[in-house]
Design brief:
The complex is a heterodimer of chains A (318) and B (202).
Chain A: E1 16-25, H1 54-60, H2 63-72, E2 74-84, E3 89-93, H3 100-107, E4 115-120, E5 123-124, H4 130-135, E6 137-141, H5 152-156, H6 158-162, H7 167-180, H8 185-188, H9 198-210, E7 216-220, H10 228-245, E8 248-253, H11 256-262, E9 265-270, E10 273-278, H12 280-285, H13 290-308
Parallel strand pairs in A: 3-8, 3-9, 6-7, 7-8
Antiparallel strand pairs in A: 1-2, 1-4, 4-5, 9-10
Chain B: H1 2-7, H2 10-43, H3 45-60, H4 63-74, H5 78-102, H6 106-114, H7 119-130, H8 132-150, H9 161-171, H10 174-201
Helix pairs in contact in B: 2-3, 2-5, 2-8, 2-9, 3-5, 4-5, 5-8, 6-7, 8-10, 9-10
Bound molecules: adenosine-5'-diphosphate (ADP) and magnesium ion.
């Protein structure tokens, strides 16, 4: 599939749209300063009248803005705009600390942006109830985050149960989901997370996130902590699940091979900024930024080494 | 000693029952208050620090002094004792409750929030079940401490095993002194052991 020639935004409403999104963190105490640059009023903790819009700062090139960043914080996500179409599998690639997790957490409102807006099927997520919003989105994280005191069955059916589904329906859904993620239901449903391998835990995490058939899946380095062979299997399963469920997937990774293999488009981030967002082919052919170019070149050099020595891919795990 | 028991059994079991009652009453009120304070502290970091410090100061006040401070306000008797004992417990309970809940793996609570649990659901379905041992340990410490400090409550007419001790000391009645100390120490040790065993099974 080649999406690169399509003009974005012409047809349907994007599944997710980021409009000039900012997130600032305080370097010292690790908390957001809660400066909401683009919204008027309601700011409880104003810092000596410094809450001007970063857009304005950037366009005016105000020197005070630079000084401000030094003193009080930095932008983990910096003026990021992007459109994601319904049904896409987008990978977000960038080295550790470049703001990938922050971007994902703003998408399901675990973090609130300090500027800009995020739209889900054309509706501002800021105007929606966070809990309802999150139930429309699946969320999978690296450590799986399974509930250690619950069985696989209970982990997977936790939200359906909170939504008061009939027990029989919960059970059927669990069976369906475990089959979908490649776990033999009767063998695994009554196990506890501690009785599973890392890869199996990730599968359960995936099943749990898919429980209520969310239209959007947010995956934060879900395969970051599993070994290379398991990861390859999981990647294939993910592609299959994406095909079968037809949802919009946002997949964060720091592994360039994973990003280019899975994504129909790849978002490349560095220092909180979006450098390039395009199909893997286009990015390789026309890197839009020196950083992207270096990234591609280093990946190719590694590839070359593997091609010329041993014939299997070990991934570029850091 | 045995003769004292056979002749005046009510002089032993009544203080013992009083003592247990005092501990129970204090425990129920303390846990209820600590639960509310914990919820507040979890949502407000700076208030939490401030409150912990304040409770630390209260905890360091010697018990006789705290009773003495309260007497002008609430008079002699059990009410005053329960108030003072509850105040001491808040330090132990709040510390154990907040640290226990905060020690739950943030990846797990993040995931719980991220898949769409409300904060109350995260608390009741995830944080409390996972922190149950720390929560229970806090309660155990509070109970044992209440049993101990509770003996001093006899000095303000609140009854309990302290009456045996104080009466015994005043009249130099060895049997009373012994029964008072054995029962209060025994009660504390036994309760601690039982609660610890229960904690292990959690
Ligand atoms: N809660 C937080 N408080 C303070 N700084 C944070 C917080 N979360 C992330 N950061 C900082 O923001 C930057 C981006 O973090 P993150 O989005 O987690 O990066 P990534 O997921 O790409 O590794 C990092 O420098 C990180 O230290
Ligand atoms: Mg991350």
């Amino acid at each position: 599939m080649n999406h690169s020639s399509e003009k974005e935004g012409l047809c349907a409403v994007p599944a997710i749209e980021y409009r000039n999104v900012y997130k600032r963190f305080d370097r010292t105490d690790g908390k957001s300063l809660r400066v909401r640059p683009c919204r008027k009023g309601g700011d409880k903790r104003k810092k000596q009248g410094e809450e001007s819009c970063p857009d304005a700062e950037a366009s005016a090139g105000a020197s005070s803005a630079g000084a401000l960043k030094e003193e009080s914080g930095f932008y983990a996500v910096n003026n990021l705009s992007a459109e994601i179409r319904d049904g896409e599998l987008i990978t977000i690639l960038g080295s550790s600390g470049c703001g990938k997790t922050t971007l994902l957490k703003m998408t399901n409102r675990l973090y609130e942006p300090d500027g800009g807006s995020i739209l889900l099927f054309g509706e501002d997520i800021q105007k929606q109830d966070p809990v309802q919003l999150r139930r429309k989105m699946g969320y999978v994280i690296q450590q799986a985050g399974l509930f250690p005191h619950m069985t696989v069955e209970d982990n997977v059916s936790v939200i359906p149960r909170l939504l008061k589904w009939e027990p029989a329906r919960c059970r059927d859904r669990v069976t369906e989901l475990l089959e979908l993620v490649g776990l033999e239901p009767d063998q695994y449903r009554s196990r506890y997370p501690s009785q599973l391998s890392g890869g199996q835990q990730q599968r359960v995490g995936l099943a749990r996130a898919l429980a209520t058939k969310p239209g959007v899946m947010l995956l934060d380095e879900p395969f970051g902590a599993v070994d290379a062979i398991t990861r390859l299997n999981l990647q294939n399963e993910l592609l299959r699940i994406h095909r079968e469920t037809g949802g919009t997937f946002l997949f964060v990774t720091h592994d360039i091979h994973e990003a280019f293999r899975l994504g129909n488009r790849v978002m490349i981030m560095n220092g909180g900024r979006l450098l390039q967002m395009d199909t893997p082919e286009t990015i390789v052919r026309k890197p839009a930024d020196p950083f992207v170019e270096t990234l591609i070149r280093s990946a190719m050099e590694q590839e070359h080494f593997w091609n010329s020595s041993i014939a299997f891919d070990r991934g570029a795990d850091k | 000693m045995i003769r004292f028991l056979t002749r005046h059994p009510e002089k032993i079991y009544i203080p013992l029952l009083e003592h247990i009652e005092l501990v129970f009453l204090t425990l129920i009120i303390s846990v209820a208050i600590a639960a509310v304070l914990t919820l507040i502290c979890l949502r407000n970091e700076s208030l939490s620090l401030w409150l912990q410090q304040l409770l630390g100061v209260v905890y360091s006040i010697p018990s006789l002094a705290l009773f003495a401070i309260l007497i002008p306000v609430t008079g002699l008797g059990r009410t005053t004792a329960v108030i003072a004992l509850t105040a001491y417990n808040q330090y132990l309970l709040l510390r154990n409750f907040t640290t226990g809940l905060k020690e739950v793996d943030p990846a797990v609570t993040d995931a719980a929030k991220g898949i769409g649990m409300t904060w109350l659901q995260v608390l009741t379905k995830v944080q409390i079940p996972l922190a149950r041992r720390a929560l229970f340990a806090g309660i155990r410490l509070a109970v044992v401490s209440t049993i101990g400090i509770g003996t001093i409550a006899a000095s303000i007419n609140a009854g309990g095993l302290g009456t045996l001790l104080f009466d015994g000391l005043r009249t130099m009645n060895i049997a009373r002194i012994l029964w008072g100390s054995i029962l209060s120490a025994g009660l504390a040790i036994l309760t601690n052991a039982l609660l610890r065993a229960a904690e292990e099974r959690l």
